[in-house]
Amino acid sequence: MTTLAIHGGTAVRAEAWPAWPHYGSDVQEAIARVGMSGKFHPMFGNETKTFEAAFAAYHGMPEAVAFSHGTTALMAALAAAGIGCGDEVMVPAYTYAASAGAVVEQNAVPIFVDSEPKSQGLDPEDLRRKITPATKAIMVVHVNGYPCDMDAVMAIAAEHGLMVIEDCSHAHGARYKGKLVGTIGHFGAFSIQHKKNLAAGTGGVTLTRDVAAAEQMRKIRNYEWHDIGHNWQINEFSSAIATVELGHLDEKNAIRRANAKKLIELLGEVPGITPLPGLPDTEPVYYNVILQYDAEAVGIPRELFVKAMAAEGIPINMFYQPLQRWPIFAKADFYGKGCPFQCPMREGGPVEYGSVSTPVAGAICRSVNLEIKVQPPCGEGEMKQIADAIRKILAARQELTSKLLKN
Length: 407
Ligand SMILES: Cc1ncc(COP(=O)(O)O)c(C=O)c1O
Fold this sequence. Notes:
Elements lengths: L24 H13 L9 H13 L3 E5 L2 H11 L7 E5 L4 H9 L3 E5 L10 H7 L4 E7 L8 H11 L2 E5 L7 E2 L2 E2 L6 E5 L12 E5 L2 H10 L15 H32 L5 E3 L6 E2 L5 E5 L1 H4 L3 H10 L4 E2 L9 H4 L28 H10 E4 L7 H16 L1 H10 L1
Parallel strand pairs: 2-3, 2-4, 4-5, 5-8
Antiparallel strand pairs: 1-9, 6-7, 6-11, 8-9, 10-12, 12-14, 13-14
This protein binds pyridoxal-5'-phosphate.
C-alpha cells in the first residue's frame, strides 16, 4: 500500500493549489490606466459608472449600484428596502457572518433559518414556521454558488408582504430556472472581493429594478446634504478590474462547471462521499464544489480526512457552526449595549439564540460539508489529483485511524 503523505509518503500533489484570482494582462492594463489617471475616487473617474452599466446590462437589469464591499452592498439594500429598528430579517443559518451582520448593522434582528438539503439554501418550510408579525424581509444566500429555492421563497414573500434580498456573493452568473440570480428578488447584492467568482480585490454591487431604491442607495453610499449617508464608495481600481473580469465571468464559470462535472465523474460511487446535487433546473457556478461527507460510512473522522487531504496537497475548507452558534451571535450583543437584540422597539422581547434549532445547517457545518476549490486555472489534472487523493486515503483508512488511536 502507498504510504500516505500525512505519514511521510509522497504527496499526490507537491506544488501549491492554483491561486485565485487568475488575472490576465487586461487587468494589469486596467490598473495601470487608473493609476496613471490619478482619479481613484468614483466621483472623479468613469470606471465605476462603466462597471455599473456593464453589470446591469449583463443581468438585463435597469440599475446596478457599486459599493466598497459586499457587506455595504447588503446594508444599502436592506436600508433601501426599509429595514430598521424592531424589524426581523430571515437569514440562513449556514452562510458567512456578513449576511447576518449586515442585518444587525441596520439595527434589525436576524432570525436564523435551517437549510434545505439539496441546495443547502434557505429551507422554505422552516422559513414559513419562523415568520412573525415583526418579519419584514427575507435574505437568501446562494451558498457556494448553488441557487436556492427562489420560487418557494418568492411565493412566501408575496403571501406575507416581505422584501427579498438575494445575497449572491458566491453565485455571480448562476441561474435559477434560466434566470440569473440577483434578478429574482427585490434586491440582489454581490461581494466582488478577491475570493469571489467575480474578483476585484474589494467591492460590492447591488441590483434592483426599483429606480427610486437605486437612487436612495446612491445617496446612502455617498454623504448627502439632505439624507442620511455613509462613505461606502467603491474605488476606481476595483471597478476597472471588475469590468474586465465581468467580460471573463461566463468563460471562467464554464471552467468551474466542467471541473465539477469531471470531478464527480472521476469520483464515481464512493460510499460516504456524495456530491451535493443542487436543485433541478439550476446552473450552479461552484464557488466551492460541495462533497457531503459521512464519517461513519467512510470510517475516518472529517477533520482527520481533511488533514490527510491537505498533506496530499489538496486544500479543503470546512465550516464549523451555524451562525447562531458563532460567539458574536450567541452572545447577541455586538457593541456592548445589547442593541438591537434587546431593543425596546422589538416586539417579542430580547433575542435568545441558544434555543434556535437548525438541525440540517448544524450537520452541514459540523460534520457534512467538504468545500473543494475548482476555479481556473484548475483543470482536469487537478480534478484527477483530488479523486486520486481521496482513493489513496480511503485505501489506507485503517492505517490512518489506527495511528490516530495510538497517538
Ligand atoms: C455570503 C457572503 N455574503 C457577504 C459577504 C461580504 O462581502 P465582503 O467581504 O465583500 O464585505 C461575503 C464575503 O465573504 C460572503 O461570503
